[in-house]
Amino acid sequence: MSLEGWINWVISWAYTPYGGLALFLNSFAESSFFPIPPDLLLIALSLLRPQWALGYAAICSVGSVLGGVLGYLLGLKGGRPLLQRFVSEERINLVERYYQKYDLWAVGIAGFTPLPYKAFTISAGVFVLDLKRFIFISFVSRSARFFLVGSIIFLFGETVKFYLTKYIDIFSIAFMVLLILGFLAIRFFSKRMRKKSETSDQRRLK
Q: Please, which of 13, 34, 53, 188 could form a disulfide with 46 given CB 3.0 to 4.6 Å?
């Protein structure tokens, strides 16, 4: 199935009685292995029932953090070989440098932005970072991201619903562009950091 097909399949759950459960499972799975972020389903459900938008944001946050813990445990038990099955070596090196520079706040950056959160959850286990701090920072960053969306729809209701419904294709494309830009940013900074590292090593040898 293509990426667009996966997205349409995920969004279609908003129109079923199992939308809330699908949102929880989507946010849980995306934190460790599933490719589609839960934001689109969160938006679709919140637009259908704006009065429940904050509740959906809470479901999304809890599911995402629990999924992040699963990713952490997978990384802890499976080690670097498991991480290499899900993430390229370039991204692993970049994530490792993020941790060296920002400590666990790197998880917060990934949790709030389009960066692939699963790469950070699994690697947090691989690098044996503090689990309690990992859970705390994940909860703060993921809640901030999902409650921002939920609060806007809850507070502005029909106005936001009108514009999002009218321009849903544009918003979907914009979200996909942000997702792709996140991956490209990782690739760019990974190459840049690798070049700096190689230059630094060459200077030491001299």
A: 53
Handedness of CA 123, 129, 135, 139 (dihedral sign): negative
Which pTM was predicted?
0.72
Residue type, 187: R
And the tokens for 83? 């991480």
Q: Convert the pLDDT of each residue in 12-63 to its tens digit.
A: 999 999 999 999 999 999 988 887 889 889 988 998 898 999 999 999 999 9
- Is 67:29 a contact under the CB 8 Å cutoff? yes
| Helices vs strands, H then E, count in the chain | 9, 0
In this structure, is the dihedral angle defined by the CA atoms of residues 139, 26, 83 and 69, taken in order, positive or negative?
A: positive
Q: How far is CA 1 from CA 4, 6, 9, 38, 176, in A?
A: 8, 6, 10, 18, 16
How far is it, in rounded angstroms, from Cα 63 to Cα 24? 5
If one counts the domains in the chain, the total is: 1
Cα(194)–Cα(148) distance, rounded to whole angstroms? 35
Q: Are 61 and 139 in contact (CB under 8 A)?
A: yes
Distance CA 65, CA 143 (A): 9
Q: What is the rounded CA–CA span in Å between residue 165 and residue 186?
A: 31
CA angle 64, 79, 191 (to 5 degrees): 80
Q: What angle do CA 172, 19, 145 make, to 5 degrees?
A: 50
